[in-house]
Specification:
single chain; mainly alpha
């Protein structure tokens, strides 16, 4: 990946984080959820979105080029982000901050990082096995 492509991908990562933050701190997504999704599916849809977006952000931060310390900083940012957005939701109409949402967000971060670790581990393992000479 060229340096320019890497910078573009990181810019997209930051843009996604900013858009997600705006979505979490505005009442409109909740209002749309009430209009478009049945109440029985609303909770699972919202929590699934929390889990999925944080997993995507964590997986993306793992895959994109950068130093280990920069990627660690991104994971810390995601964890602080989970707490901060839930705390700030207390003052947003139709939103409530919740520790269970923080837990779901953090689970998404762990899943995203775990998916990358599994991919990395299996990819490295396959290369090691393929490079062995048996004769």
């Amino acid at each position: 990946m060229s340096k320019q492509t890497g910078l573009f991908c990181w810019a997209c990562w930051w843009l996604l984080l900013i858009l997600w933050t705006i979505g979490l701190l505005r009442p409109e997504p909740i209002q749309m959820q009430h209009q478009l999704i049945s109440p029985s599916l609303g909770w699972i849809t919202a929590k699934g979105l929390h889990l999925g977006v944080y997993a995507l952000l964590a997986l993306s931060a793992s895959i994109l080029p950068g130093s280990s310390s920069f990627k660690l900083a991104c994971f810390i940012i995601l964890m602080v982000h989970a707490f901060a957005t839930e705390f700030l939701q207390q003052w947003v109409k139709e939103r409530t901050g919740s520790l269970s949402d923080v837990a779901i967000d953090l689970l998404g971060v762990v899943l995203g990082f775990g998916m990358w670790k599994l991919y990395y581990w299996f990819g490295t393992y396959r290369k090691r096995v393929a490079s062995r000479k048996y004769f």
